[in-house]
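SUBJECT: A protein chain and its fold
Encoding: whole-number codes for local backbone shapes
RECORD BEGINS BELOW THIS LINE
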Amino acid sequence: MSEFVIVIPSRYASTRLPGKPLREINGKTMLEHVYQRGIESAASNVVIATDDERIAEAAEEFGARVCMTGDQHRSGTERIAEVCDLMDWPDNKIVVNLQGDEPTMPAMLIDQCAAVLQDNSADIATLASPIALQQDFENPNVVKVVVADNGNALYFSRAAIPFARVADLQSKARGAALHHHGIYAYRCGVLRQLVAAEPADIEVCEQLEQLRALSLGMTIRVAIPSERPGAGVDTEEDLAAAATQLAH
């Protein structure tokens, strides 16, 4: 596998779970668990990107490399793009965005996402699993992606897509969609193009920043992960579920 790096964007503010990165799970902060998943992968470097001194201090205590960024960023993508510039990384360097609220993301899936980008000419790589339950298909907090026969994303949505016009086709509709996981691999040049562009209307409507890439005509290759990752952490219930999973 060719070389890649990981950047973990981390901010202190969280509407549903204040101070989320520094909440403890089984005696370690969530941020440290995420960092450990990165260290367990094949990445040549793992960097925590933040604008908050509390996060920086906690990260340095467990030996992580920290990159301080500006506080103006609207998304983790923008924060990672600044890291690319601060580190003076070339346009062809592969960066995996490992989100700071994914403490149960298996290291092998980080490697898989990076390998997908290395093995084809797509602009971005990501992972998505078959949808397990009808309630997940209908849940706006579960992001769905519909994929072309060549493996490239056609569209991402919080809505239940594709829409079954006839009730008998509900199971077929659910089978045609995948449950998107929030992990991405990009080249630095693609990141720079993304943050230089204005938000797309579809991105603003859905509140899904990957739709900017599709609006710009970029290709997003979607792979099915070799194992299903645990859910990200947004609530107290998610925190408890992560603690249970990480205890095994």
About this structure: Residues 5-246 form a domain with the Spore Coat Polysaccharide Biosynthesis Protein SpsA; Chain A fold (CATH 3.90.550.10). The chain has one domain: 5-246. The longest helix spans residues 107-119. The CA atoms of residues 194 and 213 lie 7 Å apart.
